[in-house]
Amino acid sequence: MEQEKIKKIYAAYSNVYDAIFKRIFYPRIKHAIAVMDIKPGERILDVGVGTGISLGAFPKHCRVVGIDLSTEMLMKAKKKVVKNRLGNIKVVSMDAMSVGFRDNSFDRVFLSHVVSVVPDPYRMMSEVKRVCRKGGQVVIVNHFKSRNKLVETVEKVINPICKQLGWRNDLCLSEFIANSGLRVNKKYMLRKLDFWHIVFATNEK
Ligand SMILES: C[S@@+](CC[C@H](N)C(=O)[O-])C[C@H]1O[C@@H](n2cnc3c(N)ncnc32)[C@H](O)[C@@H]1O
Fold it and tell me: Which fold has domain 3-202?
């Protein structure tokens, strides 16, 4: 998907995103951040922070930077920061495929529902690995294509529609992990029948 098209799609979502997606996405986000067990003073990068539905789940004792390319989505995130007095959190406009932070700037990187959205997930992951310190943690919440052949076929058929809606559903988890060069510590779904994986990995550089 082209970046300009993605920006347009998410600009259009910004006013209704929380109403449509928060109920669906937040339980996994909350769970993943709780499992991260973030320590005091740690620096966290939230890539593709969107409207900031994750922000309230981070402990107050860490420093969080959320980045996103959509001005409209970021405005919603900024409102949450101000309204909830999240003084430890900043949200800034930035391309996840060209991150403007120095190498090793973060202890952990959190990516929820963004891997299937960016035009080049591997370019993004190379940036994630660069800005995350060696031995730091990379946590991904995302949909990957099903290993059930019937479901996979349906996903393939509806993929062009999903792309129009702002995401792809044809990424293979094992391929993604191999190409990203992450050392995965654990990966699972929150429910037996679920569409989203939660992946905890170590950044090996
Ligand atoms: C499905 S939303 C996920 C938002 C949030 N992480 C969540 O779980 O609710 C995907 C987000 O990725 C952002 N995005 C897409 N391409 C991006 C890029 N190249 N750099 C940064 N953010 C990007 C979109 O603007 C959108 O806010």
Answer: Rossmann fold (3.40.50)
